[in-house]
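Practice problem: predict the structure.
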Amino acid sequence: MCGIVGYIGNKEAYPILINGLKRLEYRGYDSAGVALLNGNINIYKRKGKVSDLEEFTKSKNVQGTIGIGHTRWATHGEPNDVNSHPHRSMDGKFVLIHNGIIENYGKLKRSLEECGYEFKSDTDTEVLANLIAYIYKEGEMSVEMAVRLALKKVIGAFGLVIFSTEEPDKLIAARRGSPLVIGVGKGEYFLASDATPIVEHTNSVIYLNDDDLAIIKKDQLLLKTIFDEKQEPVVEELDLDIGEIDKNGFPHFMLKEIFEQPRSILDTFRGRVAKDNSEIVLGGLYRVIDDLVKAKRILIVACGTSWHAGQVGEYMIEDLARIPVEVEYGSEFRYRNPVITKEDIVIAISQSGETADTLAAIRMAKEAGAKVLGICNVVGSSIPRETDAGVYTHAGPEIGVASTKAFTAQVTVLAMIAMVLGNKRGELSTEDYNELIHDLTEVPAKIEKILQQNEEIKAIAEIYKEATNAIYLGRGYLFPVALEGALKLKEISYIHAEGYPAAEMKHGPIALIDENMPVIVIATKDKSYDKIVSNIQEVKARNGKVIAVVTEGDETIRNMADHVMEVPESTEMLSALTTVIPLQLLSYHIAVMRGCNVDQPRNLAKSVTVE
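Answer:
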Protein backbone atom coordinates (compact mmCIF):
# COMPACT_ATOMS: atom_id res chain seq x y z
CA MET A 1 0.00 0.00 0.00
CA CYS A 2 2.83 2.41 0.67
CA GLY A 3 4.67 4.33 -2.02
CA ILE A 4 8.39 3.84 -2.66
CA VAL A 5 10.67 6.02 -4.77
CA GLY A 6 14.43 6.02 -5.27
CA TYR A 7 17.10 7.62 -7.43
CA ILE A 8 20.78 7.11 -8.21
CA GLY A 9 22.63 9.10 -10.85
CA ASN A 10 24.24 12.48 -11.41
CA LYS A 11 21.26 14.72 -10.68
CA GLU A 12 20.13 16.05 -7.33
CA ALA A 13 17.91 13.33 -5.91
CA TYR A 14 15.64 15.42 -3.67
CA PRO A 15 13.43 17.06 -6.33
CA ILE A 16 12.99 13.69 -8.04
CA LEU A 17 12.04 12.04 -4.75
CA ILE A 18 9.56 14.72 -3.69
CA ASN A 19 7.84 14.81 -7.07
CA GLY A 20 7.77 11.02 -7.11
CA LEU A 21 6.17 10.91 -3.67
CA LYS A 22 3.48 13.33 -4.84
CA ARG A 23 2.73 10.98 -7.72
CA LEU A 24 2.56 8.03 -5.32
CA GLU A 25 0.62 9.68 -2.52
CA TYR A 26 -2.56 7.87 -3.55
CA ARG A 27 -0.88 4.68 -2.27
CA GLY A 28 -0.60 6.05 1.28
CA TYR A 29 -0.66 9.42 2.95
CA ASP A 30 -0.25 8.93 6.70
CA SER A 31 3.35 10.15 6.65
CA ALA A 32 6.26 10.69 4.30
CA GLY A 33 10.04 10.81 4.40
CA VAL A 34 13.26 10.94 2.41
CA ALA A 35 16.85 9.86 3.01
CA LEU A 36 19.75 11.36 1.06
CA LEU A 37 23.29 10.02 0.85
CA ASN A 38 26.05 12.58 0.29
CA GLY A 39 28.99 11.56 2.40
CA ASN A 40 26.63 11.67 5.36
CA ILE A 41 23.07 10.40 5.57
CA ASN A 42 20.31 12.97 6.03
CA ILE A 43 16.88 11.63 6.92
CA TYR A 44 13.79 13.84 7.02
CA LYS A 45 10.33 12.51 7.74
CA ARG A 46 7.01 13.81 8.95
CA LYS A 47 3.54 12.64 9.85
CA GLY A 48 1.01 13.90 7.32
CA LYS A 49 1.09 14.59 3.61
CA VAL A 50 4.06 14.96 1.29
CA SER A 51 3.42 18.71 1.37
CA ASP A 52 4.13 18.66 5.13
CA LEU A 53 7.46 16.95 4.47
CA GLU A 54 8.26 19.43 1.72
CA GLU A 55 7.60 22.34 4.07
CA PHE A 56 9.73 20.75 6.79
CA THR A 57 12.74 20.31 4.49
CA LYS A 58 12.80 23.90 3.16
CA SER A 59 15.67 24.91 5.44
CA LYS A 60 17.41 21.52 5.47
CA ASN A 61 20.40 20.15 3.62
CA VAL A 62 18.85 18.11 0.84
CA GLN A 63 21.91 17.68 -1.35
CA GLY A 64 22.84 14.27 -2.69
CA THR A 65 22.66 12.27 -5.90
CA ILE A 66 21.50 9.09 -4.18
CA GLY A 67 18.25 9.02 -2.26
CA ILE A 68 15.12 7.13 -1.31
CA GLY A 69 11.65 8.29 -0.31
CA HIS A 70 8.46 6.81 1.09
CA THR A 71 4.83 7.74 1.62
CA ARG A 72 3.13 5.52 4.17
CA TRP A 73 -0.15 3.73 4.76
CA ALA A 74 0.28 2.56 8.34
CA THR A 75 0.30 -1.14 9.21
CA HIS A 76 2.71 -1.65 12.13
CA GLY A 77 2.66 1.36 14.40
CA GLU A 78 0.45 4.44 14.38
CA PRO A 79 1.15 7.27 11.93
CA ASN A 80 3.72 9.58 13.54
CA ASP A 81 7.16 11.02 12.85
CA VAL A 82 9.04 8.14 14.46
CA ASN A 83 7.19 5.38 12.62
CA SER A 84 7.57 7.15 9.28
CA HIS A 85 10.01 5.75 6.74
CA PRO A 86 12.92 5.69 5.97
CA HIS A 87 14.25 3.68 8.92
CA ARG A 88 17.87 3.47 9.98
CA SER A 89 19.70 0.63 11.69
CA MET A 90 20.95 1.24 15.23
CA ASP A 91 24.55 1.50 14.03
CA GLY A 92 23.53 4.10 11.45
CA LYS A 93 24.98 2.18 8.53
CA PHE A 94 21.80 0.97 6.79
CA VAL A 95 18.74 2.95 5.67
CA LEU A 96 15.62 1.22 4.42
CA ILE A 97 12.19 1.95 2.96
CA HIS A 98 9.64 -0.84 2.76
CA ASN A 99 6.19 -1.67 1.49
CA GLY A 100 4.58 -4.85 2.80
CA ILE A 101 4.38 -6.75 6.07
CA ILE A 102 7.09 -8.81 7.77
CA GLU A 103 4.92 -11.43 9.44
CA ASN A 104 7.65 -12.84 11.70
CA TYR A 105 8.99 -9.43 12.75
CA GLY A 106 8.10 -10.09 16.41
CA LYS A 107 10.32 -13.15 16.63
CA LEU A 108 13.13 -11.40 14.77
CA LYS A 109 12.85 -8.36 17.01
CA ARG A 110 13.09 -10.39 20.20
CA SER A 111 16.22 -12.14 18.90
CA LEU A 112 17.84 -8.81 18.05
CA GLU A 113 16.91 -7.31 21.42
CA GLU A 114 18.68 -10.25 23.08
CA CYS A 115 21.76 -9.20 21.09
CA GLY A 116 21.56 -5.66 22.45
CA TYR A 117 19.63 -3.93 19.68
CA GLU A 118 17.26 -1.13 20.63
CA PHE A 119 14.33 0.10 18.58
CA LYS A 120 12.92 3.61 18.25
CA SER A 121 9.78 2.77 16.28
CA ASP A 122 6.95 0.23 16.36
CA THR A 123 7.52 -0.84 12.75
CA ASP A 124 8.50 -4.14 11.24
CA THR A 125 10.74 -2.17 8.84
CA GLU A 126 13.16 -1.05 11.54
CA VAL A 127 13.50 -4.70 12.56
CA LEU A 128 14.59 -5.57 9.04
CA ALA A 129 17.10 -2.70 8.94
CA ASN A 130 18.71 -3.97 12.15
CA LEU A 131 18.62 -7.57 11.00
CA ILE A 132 20.64 -6.62 7.92
CA ALA A 133 23.05 -4.62 10.07
CA TYR A 134 23.47 -7.55 12.49
CA ILE A 135 24.17 -10.06 9.71
CA TYR A 136 26.60 -7.65 8.04
CA LYS A 137 28.53 -7.09 11.27
CA GLU A 138 28.64 -10.70 12.39
CA GLY A 139 29.43 -12.21 8.99
CA GLU A 140 31.95 -9.68 7.70
CA MET A 141 30.42 -9.81 4.23
CA SER A 142 29.22 -7.52 1.44
CA VAL A 143 26.10 -5.45 1.84
CA GLU A 144 24.44 -7.44 -0.93
CA MET A 145 25.05 -10.73 0.84
CA ALA A 146 23.80 -9.35 4.15
CA VAL A 147 20.59 -8.24 2.47
CA ARG A 148 20.12 -11.59 0.76
CA LEU A 149 20.68 -13.55 3.96
CA ALA A 150 18.33 -11.30 5.90
CA LEU A 151 15.56 -11.65 3.32
CA LYS A 152 15.84 -15.42 3.48
CA LYS A 153 14.86 -15.17 7.14
CA VAL A 154 11.83 -13.01 6.40
CA ILE A 155 8.29 -14.35 6.22
CA GLY A 156 5.87 -12.00 4.53
CA ALA A 157 5.72 -9.47 1.73
CA PHE A 158 8.13 -6.73 0.84
CA GLY A 159 9.09 -4.21 -1.76
CA LEU A 160 12.15 -2.41 -0.43
CA VAL A 161 15.10 -0.21 -1.28
CA ILE A 162 18.24 0.01 0.86
CA PHE A 163 21.46 1.99 0.91
CA SER A 164 24.45 1.78 3.21
CA THR A 165 27.34 4.02 4.22
CA GLU A 166 29.52 0.91 3.86
CA GLU A 167 29.02 0.85 0.08
CA PRO A 168 27.78 4.36 -0.67
CA ASP A 169 27.74 4.07 -4.45
CA LYS A 170 24.76 1.75 -4.78
CA LEU A 171 21.12 1.05 -4.03
CA ILE A 172 19.78 -2.44 -3.41
CA ALA A 173 16.14 -3.21 -4.21
CA ALA A 174 14.12 -6.37 -3.69
CA ARG A 175 10.53 -7.52 -3.93
CA ARG A 176 8.26 -10.31 -2.81
CA GLY A 177 4.55 -9.68 -3.10
CA SER A 178 4.83 -5.88 -3.26
CA PRO A 179 5.46 -4.22 -6.64
CA LEU A 180 8.68 -2.50 -7.59
CA VAL A 181 9.66 -0.94 -10.93
CA ILE A 182 13.10 0.27 -12.04
CA GLY A 183 13.33 3.07 -14.60
CA VAL A 184 16.39 2.92 -16.83
CA GLY A 185 17.98 6.24 -17.81
CA LYS A 186 21.34 7.33 -19.18
CA GLY A 187 23.77 7.03 -16.30
CA GLU A 188 20.89 6.96 -13.82
CA TYR A 189 18.18 4.70 -12.44
CA PHE A 190 14.80 5.43 -10.87
CA LEU A 191 12.85 3.15 -8.55
CA ALA A 192 9.18 3.26 -7.61
CA SER A 193 6.19 1.20 -6.51
CA ASP A 194 4.62 1.85 -9.90
CA ALA A 195 5.50 3.71 -13.08
CA THR A 196 3.77 7.03 -12.31
CA PRO A 197 6.89 8.73 -10.81
CA ILE A 198 9.12 7.32 -13.54
CA VAL A 199 7.32 8.25 -16.76
CA GLU A 200 8.48 11.89 -16.72
CA HIS A 201 12.11 10.73 -16.67
CA THR A 202 12.22 7.62 -18.86
CA ASN A 203 9.97 5.23 -20.78
CA SER A 204 12.27 2.24 -20.25
CA VAL A 205 11.46 0.11 -17.21
CA ILE A 206 12.23 -3.22 -15.58
CA TYR A 207 9.50 -4.89 -13.53
CA LEU A 208 10.94 -6.91 -10.67
CA ASN A 209 9.54 -10.38 -10.06
CA ASP A 210 9.05 -12.02 -6.69
CA ASP A 211 12.37 -12.75 -4.95
CA ASP A 212 14.30 -10.55 -7.39
CA LEU A 213 17.20 -8.54 -6.01
CA ALA A 214 18.68 -5.60 -7.93
CA ILE A 215 22.10 -4.12 -7.15
CA ILE A 216 22.14 -0.69 -8.75
CA LYS A 217 24.95 1.79 -9.39
CA LYS A 218 24.43 4.93 -11.45
CA ASP A 219 25.89 3.24 -14.54
CA GLN A 220 25.26 -0.44 -13.79
CA LEU A 221 22.43 -2.78 -12.83
CA LEU A 222 22.92 -6.37 -11.72
CA LEU A 223 19.81 -8.49 -11.31
CA LYS A 224 19.70 -11.74 -9.40
CA THR A 225 17.45 -13.51 -6.91
CA ILE A 226 17.80 -13.48 -3.17
CA PHE A 227 19.10 -17.04 -3.65
CA ASP A 228 22.03 -15.60 -5.69
CA GLU A 229 20.74 -16.81 -9.06
CA LYS A 230 21.66 -14.39 -11.84
CA GLN A 231 18.72 -12.99 -13.85
CA GLU A 232 18.64 -11.24 -17.22
CA PRO A 233 16.85 -7.88 -16.91
CA VAL A 234 13.95 -7.45 -19.36
CA VAL A 235 13.59 -3.80 -20.32
CA GLU A 236 10.06 -2.85 -21.39
CA GLU A 237 8.66 0.35 -22.82
CA LEU A 238 6.08 2.26 -20.81
CA ASP A 239 2.78 2.97 -22.56
CA LEU A 240 1.94 5.94 -20.36
CA ASP A 241 1.59 9.65 -21.06
CA ILE A 242 2.53 12.22 -18.42
CA GLY A 243 -0.78 13.99 -19.09
CA GLU A 244 -2.64 10.93 -17.87
CA ILE A 245 -1.33 11.41 -14.34
CA ASP A 246 -2.11 15.14 -14.07
CA LYS A 247 -5.45 16.68 -13.12
CA ASN A 248 -5.70 18.61 -16.38
CA GLY A 249 -7.72 21.43 -14.87
CA PHE A 250 -10.06 19.32 -12.74
CA PRO A 251 -10.14 20.06 -9.00
CA HIS A 252 -9.68 16.37 -8.15
CA PHE A 253 -8.44 13.24 -9.86
CA MET A 254 -11.73 11.52 -9.03
CA LEU A 255 -13.79 14.04 -10.99
CA LYS A 256 -11.33 13.88 -13.89
CA GLU A 257 -11.59 10.09 -13.92
CA ILE A 258 -15.39 10.17 -13.81
CA PHE A 259 -15.35 12.43 -16.86
CA GLU A 260 -12.77 10.21 -18.59
CA GLN A 261 -15.14 7.24 -18.71
CA PRO A 262 -16.47 7.79 -22.23
CA ARG A 263 -12.87 7.60 -23.43
CA SER A 264 -11.74 4.79 -21.11
CA ILE A 265 -14.67 2.56 -22.12
CA LEU A 266 -13.98 3.34 -25.79
CA ASP A 267 -10.30 2.51 -25.29
CA THR A 268 -11.27 -0.77 -23.63
CA PHE A 269 -13.28 -2.03 -26.60
CA ARG A 270 -11.35 -0.16 -29.31
CA GLY A 271 -9.52 -2.60 -31.58
CA ARG A 272 -11.47 -5.51 -30.12
CA VAL A 273 -14.77 -4.77 -31.84
CA ALA A 274 -15.02 -5.17 -35.60
CA LYS A 275 -15.87 -1.96 -37.46
CA ASP A 276 -19.15 -3.46 -38.68
CA ASN A 277 -20.00 -4.67 -35.13
CA SER A 278 -19.99 -8.25 -36.39
CA GLU A 279 -17.42 -9.67 -34.01
CA ILE A 280 -15.44 -9.21 -30.79
CA VAL A 281 -11.83 -10.41 -30.76
CA LEU A 282 -10.12 -10.69 -27.37
CA GLY A 283 -6.54 -11.51 -28.31
CA GLY A 284 -5.48 -12.09 -24.71
CA LEU A 285 -7.87 -15.04 -24.49
CA TYR A 286 -6.88 -16.64 -27.81
CA ARG A 287 -5.09 -19.60 -26.22
CA VAL A 288 -7.83 -20.34 -23.68
CA ILE A 289 -11.05 -19.53 -25.51
CA ASP A 290 -11.85 -23.22 -26.08
CA ASP A 291 -11.47 -23.87 -22.35
CA LEU A 292 -13.78 -20.97 -21.60
CA VAL A 293 -16.42 -22.16 -24.05
CA LYS A 294 -16.36 -25.65 -22.51
CA ALA A 295 -16.26 -24.44 -18.90
CA LYS A 296 -18.68 -26.13 -16.50
CA ARG A 297 -18.26 -23.33 -13.95
CA ILE A 298 -16.58 -19.94 -13.72
CA LEU A 299 -15.31 -18.48 -10.45
CA ILE A 300 -14.75 -14.73 -10.33
CA VAL A 301 -12.40 -13.56 -7.57
CA ALA A 302 -11.98 -9.89 -6.66
CA CYS A 303 -12.11 -7.31 -3.87
CA GLY A 304 -13.97 -4.03 -3.36
CA THR A 305 -15.19 -2.30 -6.50
CA SER A 306 -13.76 -5.09 -8.65
CA TRP A 307 -16.00 -7.52 -6.75
CA HIS A 308 -19.01 -5.44 -7.70
CA ALA A 309 -17.90 -5.51 -11.34
CA GLY A 310 -17.58 -9.28 -10.98
CA GLN A 311 -21.18 -9.50 -9.80
CA VAL A 312 -22.33 -7.70 -12.93
CA GLY A 313 -20.18 -10.14 -14.89
CA GLU A 314 -21.89 -13.07 -13.17
CA TYR A 315 -25.28 -11.90 -14.37
CA MET A 316 -23.95 -11.27 -17.89
CA ILE A 317 -22.22 -14.63 -18.35
CA GLU A 318 -25.06 -16.64 -16.88
CA ASP A 319 -27.58 -14.67 -18.94
CA LEU A 320 -25.84 -14.87 -22.30
CA ALA A 321 -23.66 -17.99 -22.08
CA ARG A 322 -25.60 -20.12 -19.55
CA ILE A 323 -22.47 -21.01 -17.61
CA PRO A 324 -22.81 -21.11 -13.80
CA VAL A 325 -20.77 -18.31 -12.20
CA GLU A 326 -19.80 -17.70 -8.59
CA VAL A 327 -18.29 -14.44 -7.37
CA GLU A 328 -15.94 -14.66 -4.41
CA TYR A 329 -14.15 -12.12 -2.23
CA GLY A 330 -10.45 -12.85 -2.57
CA SER A 331 -10.00 -12.44 1.18
CA GLU A 332 -12.64 -15.08 1.97
CA PHE A 333 -11.76 -17.42 -0.86
CA ARG A 334 -8.17 -17.86 0.27
CA TYR A 335 -8.97 -18.64 3.91
CA ARG A 336 -11.69 -21.19 3.53
CA ASN A 337 -11.54 -24.54 1.75
CA PRO A 338 -13.23 -23.79 -1.59
CA VAL A 339 -14.10 -26.50 -4.06
CA ILE A 340 -11.93 -25.93 -7.13
CA THR A 341 -11.57 -28.46 -9.94
CA LYS A 342 -9.39 -28.70 -13.02
CA GLU A 343 -12.48 -28.03 -15.13
CA ASP A 344 -13.11 -24.66 -13.49
CA ILE A 345 -12.12 -21.32 -14.95
CA VAL A 346 -11.10 -18.68 -12.41
CA ILE A 347 -11.22 -15.02 -13.43
CA ALA A 348 -9.31 -12.63 -11.17
CA ILE A 349 -10.20 -8.94 -11.41
CA SER A 350 -8.01 -6.13 -10.06
CA GLN A 351 -7.39 -2.56 -11.17
CA SER A 352 -3.81 -2.51 -9.89
CA GLY A 353 -2.93 -6.12 -10.57
CA GLU A 354 -1.29 -6.22 -7.14
CA THR A 355 -4.22 -6.88 -4.77
CA ALA A 356 -2.74 -9.24 -2.17
CA ASP A 357 -5.87 -11.31 -1.47
CA THR A 358 -6.68 -11.71 -5.15
CA LEU A 359 -3.10 -12.79 -5.90
CA ALA A 360 -3.28 -15.36 -3.10
CA ALA A 361 -6.54 -16.68 -4.54
CA ILE A 362 -4.91 -17.00 -7.97
CA ARG A 363 -2.11 -19.09 -6.52
CA MET A 364 -4.57 -21.31 -4.68
CA ALA A 365 -6.59 -21.87 -7.88
CA LYS A 366 -3.48 -22.69 -9.90
CA GLU A 367 -2.37 -25.21 -7.29
CA ALA A 368 -5.78 -26.88 -7.68
CA GLY A 369 -5.21 -27.15 -11.43
CA ALA A 370 -7.77 -24.58 -12.56
CA LYS A 371 -7.19 -22.33 -15.55
CA VAL A 372 -6.77 -18.77 -14.24
CA LEU A 373 -7.49 -15.61 -16.24
CA GLY A 374 -6.93 -11.99 -15.30
CA ILE A 375 -8.75 -8.72 -15.92
CA CYS A 376 -6.39 -5.93 -15.01
CA ASN A 377 -5.54 -2.30 -15.80
CA VAL A 378 -1.82 -2.06 -15.03
CA VAL A 379 0.54 -3.52 -17.61
CA GLY A 380 3.44 -5.40 -16.06
CA SER A 381 1.73 -5.91 -12.70
CA SER A 382 1.70 -9.24 -10.87
CA ILE A 383 -1.72 -10.58 -11.88
CA PRO A 384 -1.08 -10.49 -15.64
CA ARG A 385 2.23 -12.24 -15.05
CA GLU A 386 0.78 -14.94 -12.81
CA THR A 387 -2.34 -15.83 -14.79
CA ASP A 388 -2.61 -18.13 -17.81
CA ALA A 389 -4.24 -15.48 -19.98
CA GLY A 390 -6.29 -12.34 -19.63
CA VAL A 391 -7.58 -9.01 -20.87
CA TYR A 392 -6.27 -5.53 -20.07
CA THR A 393 -8.89 -2.87 -19.49
CA HIS A 394 -6.95 0.07 -20.99
CA ALA A 395 -8.63 2.51 -18.60
CA GLY A 396 -5.42 4.48 -18.15
CA PRO A 397 -3.94 5.42 -14.75
CA GLU A 398 -6.49 5.77 -11.97
CA ILE A 399 -5.09 8.02 -9.26
CA GLY A 400 -8.21 8.66 -7.20
CA VAL A 401 -8.42 6.10 -4.41
CA ALA A 402 -12.13 5.49 -5.02
CA SER A 403 -12.36 3.53 -8.26
CA THR A 404 -14.64 4.93 -10.95
CA LYS A 405 -13.38 4.30 -14.46
CA ALA A 406 -11.85 1.00 -13.32
CA PHE A 407 -15.36 -0.29 -12.56
CA THR A 408 -16.83 0.61 -15.93
CA ALA A 409 -13.78 -0.67 -17.82
CA GLN A 410 -13.96 -4.00 -15.97
CA VAL A 411 -17.68 -4.30 -16.68
CA THR A 412 -16.95 -3.54 -20.35
CA VAL A 413 -14.43 -6.40 -20.52
CA LEU A 414 -16.83 -8.78 -18.76
CA ALA A 415 -19.59 -7.77 -21.20
CA MET A 416 -17.35 -8.62 -24.15
CA ILE A 417 -16.41 -11.96 -22.63
CA ALA A 418 -20.08 -12.79 -22.00
CA MET A 419 -21.03 -11.88 -25.58
CA VAL A 420 -18.23 -13.97 -27.09
CA LEU A 421 -19.05 -16.97 -24.92
CA GLY A 422 -22.78 -16.68 -25.58
CA ASN A 423 -22.19 -16.60 -29.32
CA LYS A 424 -19.64 -19.41 -29.40
CA ARG A 425 -21.80 -21.63 -27.18
CA GLY A 426 -24.82 -21.11 -29.44
CA GLU A 427 -26.83 -19.44 -26.69
CA LEU A 428 -26.74 -16.01 -28.35
CA SER A 429 -27.89 -15.70 -31.95
CA THR A 430 -25.72 -13.87 -34.44
CA GLU A 431 -28.38 -11.19 -34.76
CA ASP A 432 -28.55 -10.61 -30.99
CA TYR A 433 -24.74 -10.79 -30.75
CA ASN A 434 -24.33 -8.07 -33.34
CA GLU A 435 -27.02 -5.94 -31.73
CA LEU A 436 -25.36 -6.15 -28.31
CA ILE A 437 -22.01 -5.20 -29.80
CA HIS A 438 -23.66 -2.17 -31.40
CA ASP A 439 -25.24 -1.26 -28.07
CA LEU A 440 -21.85 -1.46 -26.38
CA THR A 441 -20.29 0.91 -28.90
CA GLU A 442 -23.01 3.47 -28.09
CA VAL A 443 -22.25 3.53 -24.36
CA PRO A 444 -19.52 6.24 -24.46
CA ALA A 445 -21.89 8.73 -26.15
CA LYS A 446 -24.59 7.93 -23.60
CA ILE A 447 -22.20 8.60 -20.73
CA GLU A 448 -21.22 11.92 -22.32
CA LYS A 449 -24.88 12.86 -22.15
CA ILE A 450 -25.19 11.81 -18.50
CA LEU A 451 -22.15 13.91 -17.56
CA GLN A 452 -23.96 16.99 -18.84
CA GLN A 453 -26.21 16.69 -15.75
CA ASN A 454 -23.29 17.37 -13.44
CA GLU A 455 -24.70 20.65 -12.13
CA GLU A 456 -28.17 19.18 -11.53
CA ILE A 457 -26.62 16.30 -9.59
CA LYS A 458 -24.52 18.79 -7.64
CA ALA A 459 -27.75 20.57 -6.60
CA ILE A 460 -29.17 17.27 -5.27
CA ALA A 461 -25.93 16.69 -3.35
CA GLU A 462 -26.35 20.07 -1.65
CA ILE A 463 -29.65 18.88 -0.16
CA TYR A 464 -28.29 15.62 1.25
CA LYS A 465 -24.74 16.54 2.24
CA GLU A 466 -25.60 16.38 5.97
CA ALA A 467 -27.16 12.92 5.81
CA THR A 468 -25.80 10.35 8.23
CA ASN A 469 -27.16 7.22 6.52
CA ALA A 470 -28.36 6.20 3.07
CA ILE A 471 -29.85 3.12 1.42
CA TYR A 472 -29.24 2.17 -2.21
CA LEU A 473 -31.71 -0.17 -3.93
CA GLY A 474 -31.55 -2.00 -7.25
CA ARG A 475 -32.78 -5.19 -8.90
CA GLY A 476 -31.10 -7.60 -11.29
CA TYR A 477 -28.16 -6.01 -13.08
CA LEU A 478 -28.73 -2.90 -11.00
CA PHE A 479 -28.27 -4.54 -7.60
CA PRO A 480 -24.44 -4.56 -7.96
CA VAL A 481 -24.74 -0.92 -9.03
CA ALA A 482 -26.53 -0.20 -5.75
CA LEU A 483 -23.67 -1.86 -3.88
CA GLU A 484 -21.11 0.17 -5.81
CA GLY A 485 -23.01 3.43 -5.28
CA ALA A 486 -23.18 2.81 -1.53
CA LEU A 487 -19.47 1.96 -1.42
CA LYS A 488 -18.57 5.21 -3.16
CA LEU A 489 -20.57 7.28 -0.67
CA LYS A 490 -18.97 5.47 2.28
CA GLU A 491 -15.44 5.70 0.91
CA ILE A 492 -15.24 9.39 0.22
CA SER A 493 -17.94 11.16 2.28
CA TYR A 494 -17.86 8.93 5.40
CA ILE A 495 -21.66 8.66 5.33
CA HIS A 496 -22.86 5.20 6.29
CA ALA A 497 -24.58 3.63 3.29
CA GLU A 498 -25.81 0.17 2.38
CA GLY A 499 -26.76 -1.38 -0.94
CA TYR A 500 -29.63 -3.88 -1.06
CA PRO A 501 -31.65 -5.81 -3.61
CA ALA A 502 -34.82 -3.75 -3.72
CA ALA A 503 -37.04 -6.71 -2.84
CA GLU A 504 -35.03 -7.30 0.34
CA MET A 505 -35.98 -3.90 1.71
CA LYS A 506 -39.05 -5.42 3.32
CA HIS A 507 -36.88 -7.99 5.08
CA GLY A 508 -35.33 -5.52 7.48
CA PRO A 509 -33.96 -2.26 6.03
CA ILE A 510 -37.45 -0.75 5.72
CA ALA A 511 -37.34 -0.27 9.50
CA LEU A 512 -34.68 2.43 8.99
CA ILE A 513 -36.70 4.58 6.63
CA ASP A 514 -38.00 7.92 7.86
CA GLU A 515 -38.05 11.53 6.69
CA ASN A 516 -34.28 11.83 7.27
CA MET A 517 -33.25 8.78 5.25
CA PRO A 518 -32.28 9.31 1.60
CA VAL A 519 -33.05 6.22 -0.47
CA ILE A 520 -31.27 6.06 -3.79
CA VAL A 521 -33.15 3.79 -6.19
CA ILE A 522 -31.71 2.64 -9.51
CA ALA A 523 -34.96 2.28 -11.44
CA THR A 524 -34.45 2.18 -15.19
CA LYS A 525 -37.05 0.57 -17.42
CA ASP A 526 -36.39 -3.16 -17.51
CA LYS A 527 -38.28 -6.33 -16.68
CA SER A 528 -38.32 -5.42 -12.98
CA TYR A 529 -39.64 -1.90 -13.54
CA ASP A 530 -43.12 -2.42 -12.09
CA LYS A 531 -41.62 -4.04 -8.99
CA ILE A 532 -39.19 -1.18 -8.40
CA VAL A 533 -42.05 1.29 -8.73
CA SER A 534 -43.78 -0.57 -5.92
CA ASN A 535 -40.63 -0.35 -3.81
CA ILE A 536 -40.53 3.42 -4.31
CA GLN A 537 -44.16 3.68 -3.22
CA GLU A 538 -43.30 1.74 -0.05
CA VAL A 539 -40.50 4.18 0.73
CA LYS A 540 -42.68 7.21 0.11
CA ALA A 541 -45.41 5.76 2.32
CA ARG A 542 -42.92 5.96 5.18
CA ASN A 543 -41.84 9.54 4.40
CA GLY A 544 -38.50 8.45 2.94
CA LYS A 545 -36.66 10.75 0.55
CA VAL A 546 -36.23 9.12 -2.86
CA ILE A 547 -33.46 9.95 -5.31
CA ALA A 548 -34.11 7.86 -8.42
CA VAL A 549 -31.90 7.01 -11.36
CA VAL A 550 -34.40 6.66 -14.20
CA THR A 551 -34.59 6.19 -17.94
CA GLU A 552 -34.86 9.43 -19.88
CA GLY A 553 -38.47 10.60 -20.16
CA ASP A 554 -39.81 8.46 -17.30
CA GLU A 555 -42.70 10.48 -15.89
CA THR A 556 -44.13 7.78 -13.62
CA ILE A 557 -41.20 7.74 -11.18
CA ARG A 558 -40.51 11.45 -11.68
CA ASN A 559 -43.94 12.14 -10.23
CA MET A 560 -43.24 9.90 -7.23
CA ALA A 561 -39.57 10.60 -6.40
CA ASP A 562 -38.15 13.67 -4.69
CA HIS A 563 -35.34 13.88 -7.25
CA VAL A 564 -34.43 12.08 -10.46
CA MET A 565 -31.19 11.62 -12.36
CA GLU A 566 -31.81 10.53 -15.94
CA VAL A 567 -29.82 8.12 -18.09
CA PRO A 568 -30.37 7.31 -21.78
CA GLU A 569 -32.24 4.12 -22.54
CA SER A 570 -29.91 1.13 -22.67
CA THR A 571 -30.10 -2.59 -23.10
CA GLU A 572 -30.58 -4.19 -19.70
CA MET A 573 -27.30 -6.08 -19.82
CA LEU A 574 -25.29 -2.86 -20.22
CA SER A 575 -27.31 -0.74 -17.81
CA ALA A 576 -24.63 -0.88 -15.10
CA LEU A 577 -22.32 1.15 -17.34
CA THR A 578 -24.67 4.13 -17.48
CA THR A 579 -26.52 4.04 -14.15
CA VAL A 580 -23.34 4.06 -12.07
CA ILE A 581 -22.25 7.44 -13.46
CA PRO A 582 -24.80 9.65 -11.63
CA LEU A 583 -24.08 7.74 -8.42
CA GLN A 584 -20.36 8.51 -8.77
CA LEU A 585 -21.10 12.20 -9.30
CA LEU A 586 -23.53 12.33 -6.38
CA SER A 587 -20.97 10.80 -4.01
CA TYR A 588 -18.23 13.09 -5.30
CA HIS A 589 -20.20 16.30 -4.79
CA ILE A 590 -21.49 15.29 -1.35
CA ALA A 591 -17.93 14.49 -0.23
CA VAL A 592 -16.54 17.78 -1.54
CA MET A 593 -19.33 19.73 0.20
CA ARG A 594 -18.53 17.93 3.45
CA GLY A 595 -14.89 19.03 3.18
CA CYS A 596 -13.56 15.51 2.59
CA ASN A 597 -10.42 14.76 0.62
CA VAL A 598 -12.02 12.76 -2.17
CA ASP A 599 -8.73 11.68 -3.76
CA GLN A 600 -7.22 10.53 -0.47
CA PRO A 601 -10.04 9.41 1.84
CA ARG A 602 -9.03 8.63 5.40
CA ASN A 603 -7.69 5.17 6.24
CA LEU A 604 -7.75 4.05 2.60
CA ALA A 605 -5.08 3.46 -0.01
CA LYS A 606 -5.40 2.74 -3.71
CA SER A 607 -3.73 -0.62 -3.95
CA VAL A 608 -4.19 -3.13 -1.13
CA THR A 609 -0.92 -5.03 -1.38
CA VAL A 610 -0.94 -6.30 2.22
CA GLU A 611 -3.44 -8.42 4.15
